[in-house]
Amino acid sequence: MKRHWILRAFRTFLFVGAAAAALGYIVMALWNATLPAVAGFHTITFVQALGLLVLSRILFGGLRGRGWRGRMHQRWQQMTPEEREQFRSRRHCGAARRRPESPP
């Protein structure tokens, strides 16, 4: 069982690394193909392209995503009181263990 999560973490790490490398290469290729000819900028290296990706994420995307908790909070705010009670009555993520139901 322990081995399963290690393999999954390794695959995730490989996927994220490959995605970052691909995005870095795309940014570098687009920059070097357009900006030196159009605006007179210097060409950039792969590491500089990765730096641009990180900088653009910080400036335009923020450092933290909303994630699961943010989406659930937004859904919860849009529910009516009846929908909230119906949601509470179903068993979600161990909610029944936290609040024991009264006997019939």
DSSP strand content: under 5%
Instruction: Describe the sheet with the most strands.
Output: none
Question: What sequence of helices (H) and strands (E) makes up the elements?
Answer: HHHHH
N- to C-terminal distance: 39 Å
Alpha carbon gyration radius: 23 Å
Low-confidence stretches: none
Tell me, what's the shape?
elongated
Could you give a short description of this structure?
The chain has 104 residues and is an all-alpha fold. It is 76% helix and 0% strand.
Structural summary, described in words:
This protein has helices spanning 2-39, 46-61, 67-78, 81-89, 95-98. With 104 residues, the protein is an all-alpha fold. The chain has two domains: 1-63; 66-94. α1 crosses α2. The protein is elongated. The model has no long low-confidence stretch (mean pLDDT 82).
Topology at a glance:
Layout: H1 2-39, H2 46-61, H3 67-78, H4 81-89, H5 95-98
Helix pairs in contact: 1-2
